[in-house]
Every structure is written in C-alpha cells, then in structure tokens.
C-alpha cells in the first residue's frame, strides 16, 4: 500500500501524546510554557502559585544523560519508555543513568530500563482501560476497556494521582471524563470535543473551538495559511556533513531503520508469540552481497558489528536491496542492540541524535556453533533477569 502524504505513525497515539503536552516546550493544546499568561491560566486551574511554574523549556530525553553526568538531574521518572534500548550511544546512556540518585519506571512490561529502576510501577495496557486516542489526522477517538486487568496494576492517571496526593498535592479524579473535561476547558483547540460528541461522531478532528463545532477535517481551508502572505512557507535546511564518516578501521556506514513485525523497543511486540515467530534475537544486519562476499560472510551467519562505541552480535541478512558500503539494523533487538553502536551527535535545534549515519565494521565469526550458543545464552540470561526482577 502507498500512503502518499499520510504516512503511518509509529503507534496509534503519538499525536495524542503531543496534544496532551508531553513535549518539553508545550502545555496541553500546544500552549507555550514560556508564555506568562498561559502559565498563569494553568496555575489557576491547578491551584498552584504561578511563581512555581517553570518558565523555561524542559529537557529533551536525549539531553538527560549529559545533564545527569553534569549533576543537573538527580532523579528520572520514566513512563512507557526504554531509554536503555532506544537511545543513541547506549554506553553514554548507561553512564548517565548510573549517575542518577533515583530512577522510577512505570510500564506494562519489563524492559532493560525497568531492570535497573529503584521503583517499578506496573500500569494497565490500552486494552485494560478506556480513554482517548488522537490519530495522525488530529482526530480524537474514545476507546473503552476491553478486558479486566489482573495483578497489582493501575491506570497511569491513577498512579500519578496517588503519587501527587502522597507528595502533598491531592488529586481527586474518579474517571477519564473528569480529566478530559478539565483539559478541554484549558485548551481552546479542543474545547468543543466533549465526551458525548466523541461518542456520537466516533471521530472528532481538532481544531474544534465551540460546543456546536463539527471539527476540522483539514487545516488551511481554501489554501490560506497562518502567515503574513497567506501562503505556506517552505525552506531548504542547510546541509551538514555527518559527524563520523567511514575510514580504514570502520569502512561501512550504519543506518538504523524499522522493519515489519516488531515495533519500537519490542517491549510489547516481543511479548507476542505470533510476532516473535516472524523474527527473533539476536536480530539482523542487512548487508550488500558484494560486501558480504568480500568479508567472507554467508547469509544468516552470526557476525560481529562494531563501531567506536560498542560491539554486538547479530545475524547477517545478505540483500541486493542494500547499497554497497552500507548496512542496516533495527533498534529493537536486545542482544543485537544497534544503539550500542550509534552516536550521540545531537541536532542543535531538535536535539535528535544522528542515528542514521555512523561508521562500523562487520566481522565474520569462524566458530558458528559457539556464536549461536553465545547469542542464545545472552538472550536467555537477559530474559531470566527481567523475570526475576518482576518477582522480587
């Protein structure tokens, strides 16, 4: 299928996280944290002194290791994220997390990051609670609880409310709708999206500024943009050379990519037997046939992939789709973790790391029987540690 200008997002609520202010520079509804009037509005609604509302843009996740090592961050509360798997230059990330005094992880499955946490807070998954998702087209959709949660788990908002109450800021929400109504009262873009309207229409696209507004199927109606000229503004980004290029020691370029079958850090899809049957540890490195032949590597053999930052074992996937001189790896594999290799060169504006380009080498392993045993043992020991951490 060709999605054209409507590419599929990583998951069904990426847009919703941004809508609700899970951004370092925005309150819910894309309201700037540096705007004093916005801070005053939220402070009044939340019953706090405006003076305690931080007027600075927050920290990006990629900046946390650096700030932790500098002593600027002492504690880390992580919800639904596995930075010890997903972030670039995992050696640096480990050092940063080790420098912290306190780490809390709130998630639905065990992860590498959860394993080292001081406190684990087990949360319900999407099927075990109701709520609202936002699609990539800005459409709000209500969803309902499908199954009864088992074990000592709670909804994310319940966990936050209990913690806040214990810390001296009581939160007394009873259900999702109470939280939703508070949010839309504070967000002009979302004000007209009531729980009832979502129930009747199934799908309401913001902006929806009034109660009788039907939602906005497309932005910039009649091709009028929010610019002085009324036209869209396009510009070319200046080209910057990669921070690291191939050389004699590391002659190949590694690009990290996605693959069908597994998603993100694999904490969810890795717990699905059907998806595990499509692909499993220690993952794969896709390599051009000519490069593989030159290196003495056969298809599906286990190999070492190394960079200036780390070394992992993985399986060679020889393919004519891959350009000569380049190799591709996906970042969800626990044993063949390509982020052991990637570099932490951050874009100055977005703070996104340069995970799409770094220099590596691929080496054949002569003793394939040993390599298979090593990969399997590494994976088995990792799973056993995670299971043991749950049972503590």
From TrEMBL:
<dbReference type="GO" id="GO:0051536">
    <property type="term" value="F:iron-sulfur cluster binding"/>
</dbReference>
<keyword id="KW-0408">Iron</keyword>
<keyword id="KW-0411">Iron-sulfur</keyword>
<dbReference type="InterPro" id="IPR006655">
    <property type="entry name" value="Mopterin_OxRdtase_prok_CS"/>
</dbReference>
<protein>
    <submittedName>
        <fullName>Formate dehydrogenase subunit alpha</fullName>
        <ecNumber>1.17.1.9</ecNumber>
    </submittedName>
</protein>
<dbReference type="InterPro" id="IPR050123">
    <property type="entry name" value="Prok_molybdopt-oxidoreductase"/>
</dbReference>
<dbReference type="InterPro" id="IPR041925">
    <property type="entry name" value="CT_Formate-Dh_H"/>
</dbReference>
<dbReference type="GO" id="GO:0008863">
    <property type="term" value="F:formate dehydrogenase (NAD+) activity"/>
</dbReference>
<dbReference type="InterPro" id="IPR006657">
    <property type="entry name" value="MoPterin_dinucl-bd_dom"/>
</dbReference>
<dbReference type="InterPro" id="IPR006656">
    <property type="entry name" value="Mopterin_OxRdtase"/>
</dbReference>
<dbReference type="InterPro" id="IPR009010">
    <property type="entry name" value="Asp_de-COase-like_dom_sf"/>
</dbReference>
<dbReference type="GO" id="GO:0016020">
    <property type="term" value="C:membrane"/>
</dbReference>
<feature type="domain" description="Molybdopterin oxidoreductase">
    <location>
        <begin position="13"/>
        <end position="165"/>
    </location>
</feature>
<dbReference type="GO" id="GO:0046872">
    <property type="term" value="F:metal ion binding"/>
</dbReference>
<dbReference type="Pfam" id="PF01568">
    <property type="entry name" value="Molydop_binding"/>
</dbReference>
<dbReference type="GO" id="GO:0003954">
    <property type="term" value="F:NADH dehydrogenase activity"/>
</dbReference>
<dbReference type="GO" id="GO:1990204">
    <property type="term" value="C:oxidoreductase complex"/>
</dbReference>
<dbReference type="GO" id="GO:0022904">
    <property type="term" value="P:respiratory electron transport chain"/>
</dbReference>
<keyword id="KW-0560">Oxidoreductase</keyword>
<dbReference type="Pfam" id="PF00384">
    <property type="entry name" value="Molybdopterin"/>
</dbReference>
<feature type="domain" description="Molybdopterin dinucleotide-binding">
    <location>
        <begin position="252"/>
        <end position="359"/>
    </location>
</feature>
<dbReference type="GO" id="GO:0043546">
    <property type="term" value="F:molybdopterin cofactor binding"/>
</dbReference>
<keyword id="KW-0479">Metal-binding</keyword>
